[in-house]
Amino acid sequence: MKKLIGKMVHAKQGCARIKMMALFALAVLTIHSVTSGAGNQGSRFGGVQIGTITYSYRSMPDQSVSAILNYTVQSGLSSVELMGGPVEQFAGIPQTKDPLVISKWRGSVSMNKFKEIRKMFNAKGVKIDILKLGDSKWSDQEIDYAFNVCKTLGARGITMEISEAAGKRMAPFADKHNLFVIFHNHGQPGDPKFSFDNALAFGPKLMLNFDAGHYFGATGLNPCLLIERLHNRIASIHIKDKTGPKASEPNKNQQFGKGETPVKEILQLVQKNKWPITCDIELEYDVPAGSDAVKEVVKCVEYCRAALVPKK
Predict the structure, then answer these.
(1) Residues 6 or more apart whose Cβ sits within 8 Å of residue 287
(2) Which of 84, 89, 93, 102 sits between 20 and 30 A of 227, alpha carbons compared?
(3) Considering Cα of 8, then 13, then 19, then 21, what sign does the dihedral take?
(4) Overall average pLDDT of the 239-249 stretch
(5) Strand partners, 234
(6) Orientation of helix 65-74 relative to helix 112-123, angle to 10°
(7) What is the mean pLDDT of the chain?
């Protein structure tokens, strides 16, 4: 009888071990499925966050916030610099060119619709990193509104065009709201009188949305030199490929890898130094026949991935 009982206990213990092993295997598979999917991994390659400015999708037929979010997900990206136009459209901005009407709306609109946008993006695993909304020429009330929208969306700052006047005007607001004003450049660096430092000198919360392509196209200088010098004042870099000012077709947007901008070198510099700089693709070259902006952004993403995580 004792032997029989012993066998029964052993059998039960064996079944328990099998169940435990099965549960452990299921847990491992579950963890693997969560961490290995592209959507869950996001678009951080080799330690560098790759995103896009949603201006890249301007040629797509639907410019609603939900459509732009879907374009971003289809591109395999997990962060964006979000254009303010579709955001305000979603919130119900009046369809008028009367600045007084628009200003009044911005001063009184509820943040509820902006909260909805944040929930939409969070649900799809896309971070609204920066909001392109606001102008240094806006009224105080409207600038406060831009920062309130930024905060509601969970972004770290608003971006606008760089100038010394903008730096002087915006620095107190950045301090007030404890958010960044992230200045973007076009071809200004081609002017010998232009200075990034002068625009940033007005406050510690003034940062750069450094457009490496425009910088190279206007100056012909290696953007890496400026990035190294000002890296602690750079929040994000617009990644694009252009020809230089001395090319046969100067300052021309090109498909990634076909221009003269040292795109790979820029990405690898950020990677090597582990700087917390978001690198945002800006699709500005003409979309080829038979393609669309989403397909082209995907190509740009793969180009960046290959530069940061080369195949063995």
Answers:
(1) 59, 293, 296
(2) 84
(3) negative
(4) 97
(5) 208
(6) 20
(7) 90
H or E element that contains 181: strand 180-184
pLDDT tens-digit profile of 245-292? 999 999 999 999 999 999 999 999 999 999 999 999 999 999 999 999
The DSSP call for residue 92 is: T
Read off the amino acid at residue 277: I
111-164 pLDDT tens trace: 999 999 999 999 999 999 999 999 999 999 999 999 999 999 999 999 999 999
| pTM (2 d.p.) | 0.86
Would the pLDDT of 10 be above 90? no
In the block, tokens 């020809």 appear at 243
In this predicted structure, the answer to whether residue 45 has a pLDDT above a threshold of 80 is yes
Question: Which element (helix H / strand E) includes 241?
Answer: strand 241-242
Contact of 231 with 277, CB cutoff 8 Å = yes
Q: Are 192 and 223 in contact (CB under 8 A)?
A: no
Q: What CA–CA distance (Å, rounded) separates 128 from 122?
A: 9
Alpha-carbon distance of 153 to 114, in angstroms, equals 6
Backbone angles phi, psi at 171, to 5 degrees: -55, -45
CB atoms within 10 A of CB 233: 16
Superfamily, domain 42-308: Divalent-metal-dependent TIM barrel enzymes (3.20.20.150)
Q: What is the DSSP letter of 162?
A: -
Closest CA to 232 of 179, 261, 270: 270
Other C-beta atoms closer than 10 Å to the C-beta of 163 total 17
- Rounded (10°) CA dihedral 246, 249, 254, 256: -40
Quick one: DSSP state of residue 116?
Answer: H
Instruction: Report the C-alpha dihedral over residues 22, 24, 27, 31, rounded to 10 degrees.
Output: -130
Q: What 8-state DSSP symbol labels residue 288?
A: P
Q: Alpha-carbon distance 251 to 268, whole Å? A: 23
